[in-house]
Each structure stands twice: as structure tokens, then as C-alpha cells.
Amino acid sequence: MRVSPSPPTGDAAAGFARHSRLLFLLLLAPALLWLIGLIVLPHVELGVLSLRARVAPRVYEPSLAQYRTFFEEPLYWHTFVRTAGMSLLATSLTLLLAFPVAWTIAKIARGRARSALFMLCLVPFWVSETVRTLGWMILLRESGVIPALLVRLGITNVPIELLYRDATLLVGLVYTSLLFMVVPLISALDSLDDSLIEAAYDLGGNGWSILRQIIIPHAAPGITAGCIVVFMLTLGNYLTPTLLGGKNSLWFTEQIYTQFITRFNWEQGAAFGFLLLVLSTAIVWMGLKLAGQRFGEVMQRT
Fold first, then answer.
1. Among 177, 232, 236, 301, which is most buried by a count of CB atoms within 10 Å?
2. CATH code at position 288
3. What is the pLDDT of residues 182-230, one digit of tens each?
């Protein structure tokens, strides 16, 4: 007859609980150090820098002058609003493109075909963003592949410059963010029971009603997670807008770079960075409220 061990009691139970908490803290320590050292402290320093003004060499005083400069200078405000609008548009286009791709991989493709389709989405991300963006520049510049092809097809008489346009900028932003939308969508759609869709068709539902009432509500956490990741990556992107949009791309991260690196005005750059952080936080919060999702549930899909 096997006797099951009795649970620890008294001092033994208290010691076991202390050891469990200690082990939990040790396992959590690297994540906490990373979070505090690389995220919390830099943002605190960013806020402090943005709230001071230089009155003499190495002499500073509390000031809101940087924020007044932002609101009083039309170029800064226009660039800020444009960056937010273009980021929202790029996120929407990425979702529209990624949803049928994710649906095909999760629900239609099987076996090797599914793996091959996912690999096709993954392969471009084996190289850096710089290489991918330079590839678009080679394709779209006036002496590039696509303008030459348009001339050969008789669509244009001479090669045209396709770079440094808003449409080109959107293509680059969508391309660099696509995988980050596809992955959470696949995760969400994989858990959708096919019998629910079959039952909806049997009950007289059409494709649009099934999409609106079954598929989208079920995939809502994946949609929200993908949109949050893509929006934040797009909003903070510097390389793609600079290379594909040129110096006139009017992207807010370029303004931040100019203040920090070109003008050595760290206080103004910190204010711009803090404003960008506030913008991203506000839009993510509004997106979660509109979607009726909780942040913890959404992050489980990423």
C-alpha cells in the first residue's frame, strides 16, 4: 500500500514559501533589470531633460520652453500630426493585407503548403531593415527596375522617379511591418473552430455576416495585438521614412534625430521624444478601448 506524502506544515511550509518566493524573484530579476535599466530609467531621464532649459554652460533651470516651441512652430506640429496619420494609415493597410494571408495560412493551406507560405512571409526578415529598404530604392529609383519595366510595357515614355512619394513611403512601412501583423493573426485564427463557420453557413449565413459576427470577434485579440505592434514600430521608424521619403518625408523621428545629433539640443529632442511616447500611449489606449480588449489578453497573442 502506497502512502502519499503529507503536505508540509508549520515551519516547513513557511520555509517552502520563502524559498519559492526567492526562486521566483531570482528568475524575474533579469527581466526586471532589463525593464528598469533599458526602459524605465531612459524614459524618466527623457522627461527630466524635456523639462529644463539651458541658461548658461552647464547651468539649467526648470522650463516648459521646449513644449512651447513645439506648439508655436507649425513645422513641428504639422510633422507630428502627419506622422500619426501616416502611421495609422500604414497600420490599416498592413491589417488589410495581412488578414487574407493569415487566413490562408491558418485555415486553407495544409501541411507543407502552410509551412512554405509562412516561410515566404518570414524570408524577407532574415536580412536587416537597411538591406530591405535599399532593395526598394533599387527597384523604384529613376534608373531602377520598375521604371525601366514601365517604359518597356509602354505605360510611360521615359523612366519616372518613384521614390520620395507618400505612396512609396507607405509601401516601405507596410512591407517592413507585415510579419508583425501576420503572426498574431495566425495565432488567433488557428484557435477558431471550423465547425462554427460550417454551422453558420448551414443556418443561412453569408460570407460577410460570418466574417463580421464570428471571425472578426474571435480574431479581435490578434487584430488588436498586431495593430499595436505595427503602429508603434511604424510611428518610431526612422530608416524607412528617411530613405524612401527623402529629406522632405516630414517624419517626426527625423525631427528628433535632428535635435539630438545635428543641433545637439538634447532638451528639445527629449521633449519631442516624450511627445511621441505620449502619442503612442494615447492611441494604443484608445485602440484597446474601442476594441474592448485588455492589454494583458492582447499581449498573449504577440
1. 177
2. 1.10.3720.10
3. 999 999 999 888 888 888 888 888 888 889 899 999 999 899 989 999 9
